[in-house]
Design brief:
The structure holds two protein chains of two kinds.
Chain A lengths: L6 E4 L3 H11 L3 E4 L5 H6 L7 E4 L9 E4 L2 E5 L4 H6 L1 H6 L1 H8 L4 H6 L2 H7 L6 H7 L3 E6 L2 E6 H4 E3 L2 E2 L6 E8 L5 E9 L6 E11 L5 E9 L6 E2 L1 H7 L6 H8 L16 H22 L5
Helix pairs in contact in A: 10-11, 11-12
Chain B lengths: L2 H5 L2 E7 L2 E7 L5 H8 L18 E4 L2 E4 L12 E3 L12 H8 L9 H14 L5 H7 L11 H20 L1
Parallel strand pairs in B: 1-5
Antiparallel strand pairs in B: 1-2, 3-4, 3-5
Classes of the chains: A alpha+beta, B alpha+beta.
């Protein structure tokens, strides 16, 4: 299978990428690792007239601590997110999610920025990044803006990125001590994509009560969904298995899951409760709760 | 779609198995076809052509990737290793030897990809558990052997590589 013909530009700097994007606008697609875009182009689901390759733009990969946040370059490969010492130490829930994407070869090539910008509703990173309260740095010729994950993901493959913007980085607030995050996923047995998944960030008081909870679900809609009823049910409560199970049972409340040949809406609602419970329990354990 | 654009080629410089190559390629040319049809390195196979099966696995700058899902233009300036470049002519890499010793193949179609993934694994983890080996092979499909002999081949190679490392 071959993609349809296209014009190719290898941008050497962010400025050059932005200039090209301004010139070619909606006729162009940005290429990072290409592990969502190239398969779509081979199937002729995507037929961009121009590709602007970000692969050689310096300064867009790597992980560092920047003030109160973790700053992850958009071109950082999933394998590097999964193995990063800083991420494994400070945000192991994010490393977990990166380590269950696709397979080894896909993780070696696919990038965090590519996954976020592609906004596949069956992808892993948008879910955990929503749970972690991440935000995305978008560069355009007129400057930079930062958009919270919840405002960024709009619907299936649809984001807040304007045609002249490049996603350059991901910022994840470093959780306070006594916090834990985790990701739990039911993968499709053949493709490995998300059927249903859950990401959780639990901030625990030394007394064992839940100071705050953020829970996001994947596979339930065209974008990651916050499990609001679950979060409310955890707030201020002791993080016992009973409380967590009762809260997780509300995970699908108010959702209208997308159905497919593999999973009915009813099945997804039930599975969402199970995976929300697993993610919350793991996050609570990482926050210091004995379960 | 303008006819003019379809004919445009892009110059690339790629080092494959230690040999530098300069080429003019269409942007849509996939790396696996560049290796097979332009360079004649047909040891890298095309299996599913949809980034599932791993038969086309090669190393880009030391990392296992699926070359059916990389454009040749993305390999500009990159060092590539294919199955042909794992060991000097006439010799076998320990992982290749392991596949022979432990009958890690039947039809052989998936084998180059399996070996390239296994080499990448053993370069990052010299003593993988069986579970780690199986997890590492998640992106490589074999439709003959049922994987048992493939896992044994990689365990054999891991031991061989550790003992030769100690003795050297």
């Amino acid at each position: 299978m071959f993609p349809a013909s296209f014009g190719y530009f290898a941008a050497r700097s962010l400025e050059e990428a932005l200039e090209l994007l301004t010139e070619y606008g909606e006729d162009a697609k940005l290429l990072a690792g290409g592990h969502s875009l190239i398969p779509a182009m081979k199937l002729r689901l995507a037929t961009p007239r121009y590709l602007i390759d970000l692969g050689r733009v310096p300064g867009l990969s790597g992980v560092r601590i920047d003030g109160e946040a973790l700053a992850i370059g958009a071109l950082t490969a999933h394998a590097d997110v999964a193995s990063s010492a800083i991420i494994r130490q400070r945000l192991p829930g994010l490393a977990d999610a990166a380590s269950v994407i696709g397979d080894v070869q896909v993780r070696n090539r696919g990038t965090i920025g590519g996954s976020v910008a592609h906004a596949d509703p069956a992808a892993d990173l948008p879910v955990i990044l929503t749970a972690l309260g991440a935000s995305f740095v978008l560069a355009s010729p007129s400057g930079k803006r930062t958009v919270a994950a919840e405002d960024f993901f709009i619907d299936f493959y649809t984001t807040a990125l304007a045609p002249n913007e490049v996603l350059t980085g991901i910022r994840v607030p470093l959780p306070p001590s006594g916090a834990g995050a985790a990701y739990a996923k039911l993968p499709h047995p053949a493709s490995g994509y998300v059927v249903v998944s859950a990401g959780a960030l639990i901030i625990r008081q030394p007394s064992g009560q839940c100071a705050s909870a953020r829970v996001a679900l994947g596979g339930m809609a065209g974008r990651p969904l916050r499990a609001g009823a679950t979060e409310t049910a955890l707030q201020g409560k002791a993080l016992t298995p009973q409380v967590i199970a009762a809260a997780a049972a509300k995970a699908a409340e108010g959702s209208d899951p997308i159905e497919d040949a593999y999973a009915s809406a009813e099945y997804k609602r039930q599975v969402a409760a199970v995976y929300a419970r697993r993610a919350i329990e793991s996050a609570a354990k990482r926050a210091g709760q004995k379960i | 779609m303008s006819g003019k654009m379809e004919r445009v080629t892009v110059p690339i410089n790629v080092t494959v198995n230690g040999v530098k190559h300069e080429a003019e390629v269409e942007p849509r040319l996939l790396l696996v076809y560049f290796l097979r049809e332009h360079l004649g390195l047909t040891g890298t196979h095309v299996g599913c052509d949809t980034s599932q099966c791993g038969a086309c696995t090669i190393h880009m700058n030391g990392r296992a990737v699926k070359s059916c899902t990389v454009l040749a233009v993305q390999a500009d300036g990159v060092k590539i290793t294919t199955i042909e470049g794992l060991a000097p002519e006439g010799t076998l890499h320990p992982v290749q030897e392991g596949f022979r010793e432990k009958h890690g193949l039947q039809c052989g179609y998936c084998t180059p990809g399996m070996i390239m993934t296994a080499v990448h694994l053993l370069e990052t983890n010299s003593s993988p558990t069986e579970e780690e080996i199986r997890h590492a092979l998640e992106g490589n499909l074999c439709r003959c052997t049922g994987y048992i002999h493939i896992v044994e081949a990689i365990q054999w190679a891991a031991q061989r590589m550790r003992s030769s490392h100690v003795s050297s």
